[in-house]
């Protein structure tokens, strides 16, 4: 049955999406390689979390079995990332999950997922920039440097660290993605080197008895009441527990967020040389590197000290483990690693944010003028600068870190739709050339979507309420502006005629 261009389910065909990249005023330069994409993936995933998330999960959830938690999380992430790789190799257009959803589930769903991705990347960039400022202040303290990190502008206190780092990378991204990735590669190599150094030194402090018991016996968790409980526990009345098998699973839900950010890599598909080959290789290669690094760090931190000693710490981290074994010097090395790590994360998130808005603007769902690119640099300079200003102001002036968990729900909602979108596009467009195919479809994509939904259910009820408010705002904007200005809705771009196009050869 044909879909009317007045329907909110109107879809944008793959051919039309590819055709939009030919607009000389709204086109991006293809100059990224599989290596560039792998570095982007490592850059966004290896941040401060690598020095803390494993220790936190071991202390509060799984004990030494957090190693299994990481394996579970990496498998779930790999399933979702394979779905992204198939879509990106089939539809190498900026926009990531937004663009993929437009071709499978229709315009309204695409708008919602694009709105979610804006939430994810805007808040993530602001939160990470905020943390960068905090760790910069800590680093000054560790090295005995007395420099105030807050500037008083009348009644307003501005933290200059977040503004500085966002400003530098906004300028780099404005003049070229390739230049930015080269700078990013240097930072990534440095932080991976620091991570490997810490791992190697840490192995000298590992004691086999700290791995026993590998799976600590289950015990009741300190329950939280009301809106701060996970949604699943809030709705089911289930008494949460820690350690044991349930501890491993809840630990997996926590450490999964260490892998969030790989979806950003898919937003650069339109700027990649030979995307059918480079995108799958880059995304999956980056994930493999990150998984190995996270597991090695976890093996070290759980082997250096007992998980019970980590649990006794207020904020368990890799630094905690080194302090407990008497290697206080590690704090300085790790603080440098965190600063360098967060620096490259901010760059990748700023890149992802602008590419999502760019794609939605080019389709008319946001003002079209935003998506104009520079003829000299082939980047959306005005959009990049505007996004940088917004992120810098939020990070420099507000307590945006209080909304940290909102990043996770925005990402996971995108993972869910991309996973379920694979079997839909396989059925509706079997004729398309796919540079990469998820094996055992539709089983693996469905398993991926369900696993991501389960992880979403482990987020707090308060996060879900905030997410609902963000969605409500997005629906209002769609109804008032986007629905009326959509290029497909206005007849400026053809809409696929049927729900189920004929298979190839018909």
- Strand fraction: under 5%
Low-pLDDT segments, ≥5 res:
494-506
Give the N-to-C terminal Cα separation: 17 Å
Shape: globular
SSE order: HHHHHHEEHHEHEHHHHHHHHHH
Portion in helices: 55-70%
The Rg value, from CA coordinates, equals 23 Å
Number of strands: 4
Question: Helical stretch count?
Answer: 19
Mean pLDDT: 80
Order of strands in the sheet with most strands: 1-2
Structure class: mainly alpha
Which assembly state applies to the chains in this document? single chain
Question: Tell me about the biggest sheet?
Answer: 2 strands, antiparallel
Any overview of this molecule?
With 506 residues, this protein is mainly alpha-helical. It contains 19 helices and four strands. A hairpin with a 2-residue loop joins β1 (150-153) and β2 (156-159). Mean pLDDT is 80; it is low at 494-506.
List keywords for this structure.
single chain; 506 residues; mainly alpha; two-stranded antiparallel sheet; 19 helices
